[in-house]
Design brief:
The protein is mainly alpha-helical and about 150 residues long. The protein has helices spanning about 5-25, 30-45, 50-75, 80-95, 105-120, 130-140. It starts with a helix and ends in an 8-residue tail after the last helix.
């Protein structure tokens, strides 16, 4: 067992993401591109320091990479996959399971910037089947409270 909450979260989240991607018919190449951005987000969250200037720089880098990803690198149907992941990461970042809330810029990046713009700009529409799948996956992820063994 590991006592690294980031590794625990990453492994648990990956398993659930695979299920969601499969159910939403996300291609493997798009899945990998999207996962890579979320891994970068998680890595930057883990490495973040108290320096506000550095956090702003990291926030801008992540936002630019996200905009590049959603503007040309993936199919439109992937947006249905990305939105619940953004919401899940936002919840995990804000409940301070991974680390204290002093990493406020990355929480703000998701909550105040990416999620709102993404929903507004991409006009994501879910079919009843998609919505059912999302409810199932969200039920799994909302109850995410891994046990970290020291």
């Amino acid at each position: 067992m590991t006592n690294n909450p980031y590794l625990t979260f990453k492994n648990d989240e990956f398993a659930k993401s695979e299920i969601l991607a499969k159910e939403l018919n996300i291609s493997e190449s798009d899945f990998i591109k999207i996962q890579n951005w979320f891994y970068l987000l998680l890595l930057k969250h883990e490495q973040a320091i108290h320096d506000m200037e550095e956090q702003v720089k990291t926030e801008k880098e992540l936002e630019a990479k996200f905009n590049q990803l959603i503007s040309s690198e993936i199919e439109r149907k992937c947006y249905k996959y990305i939105l619940p992941k953004l919401l899940h990461y936002n919840n995990v970042f804000n409940d301070a399971f991974l680390r204290s809330l002093y990493v406020v810029r990355l929480g703000a990046l998701l909550r105040d910037n990416l999620i709102g713009k993404f929903v507004k700009d991409k006009m994501i529409v879910y079919s009843p089947e998609d919505f059912f799948i999302l409810l199932f996956i969200l039920e799994l992820t909302i109850s995410f409270r891994p046990t970290v063994i020291s």
